[in-house]
């Protein structure tokens, strides 16, 4: 009789084990790690102002190679730099035989777009706006479809190799160049 009780107990534990939740996946924390300071990348458009030099002031788009073509000094690497770092780089090159003590200011005119894909009503490419969150991205894409899994989101940050899965409980920030995908629910 004791043997049958042990078998029944083992069967009950196995059945209850199937009811347990899934083990968390890599990257399934409450939110992705906070992004470091914004860095320029190809596709970003910037406004460069060189004080006292109208001919060295203008709008530039960062090329696919990660550079801008700046008057007098030619190609300047911009991708991977913060705006302050790029300002100092241009100042150094202009100060090397072109201008005396140049002052350069840079502002981002427009950011890389974000891509909102999967089970949303209007998937596609959308312009990035500062302060955009995951829930704001859903709103931009006209909400979820009836098939959407509204509990999970897949996020691929620009420059990263693959996407990570996160719970929708956290409304975290979207960055320029991000690809956001909402999966399909199964039931």
Automatic annotation (TrEMBL):
One Pfam short name: SLBB
Domain Polysaccharide export protein N-terminal: 33-108
Entry protein name: Polysaccharide export periplasmic protein
Signal peptide: 1-20
Residue ranges of every copy of the Soluble ligand binding domain listed in the record: 114-163
PROSITE patterns in the record: PROKAR_LIPOPROTEIN
InterPro entries in UniProt: Poly_export, Poly_export_N, Soluble_ligand-bd
Gene Ontology molecular function: any one: polysaccharide transmembrane transporter activity
Keywords associated with the record: Signal
Organism: Sphingopyxis fribergensis
């Amino acid at each position: 009789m004791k043997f049958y009780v042990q078998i029944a107990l083992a069967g009950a534990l196995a059945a209850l084990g199937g009811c347990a939740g899934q083990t968390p996946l890599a990257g399934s924390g409450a939110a992705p790690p906070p992004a470091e300071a914004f860095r320029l990348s190809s596709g970003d458009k910037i406004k460069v102002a060189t004080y006292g030099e109208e001919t060295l002031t203008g709008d530039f788009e960062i090329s696919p190679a990660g550079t801008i073509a700046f008057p007098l000094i030619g190609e300047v690497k911009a991708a991977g730099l913060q705006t302050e770092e790029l300002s100092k780089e241009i100042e150094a090159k202009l100060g090397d035989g072109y201008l005396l003590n140049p002052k350069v200011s840079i502002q981002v005119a427009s950011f890389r777009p974000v891509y909102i894909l999967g089970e949303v009503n209007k998937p596609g490419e959308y312009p990035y706006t500062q302060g955009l969150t995951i829930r704001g991205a859903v709103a931009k894409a006209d909400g979820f479809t009836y098939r959407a899994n509204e509990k999970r989101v897949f996020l691929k940050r620009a420059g990263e190799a693959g996407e990570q899965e996160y719970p929708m409980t956290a409304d975290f920030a979207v960055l320029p160049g991000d690809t956001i995908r909402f999966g399909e629910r199964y039931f």
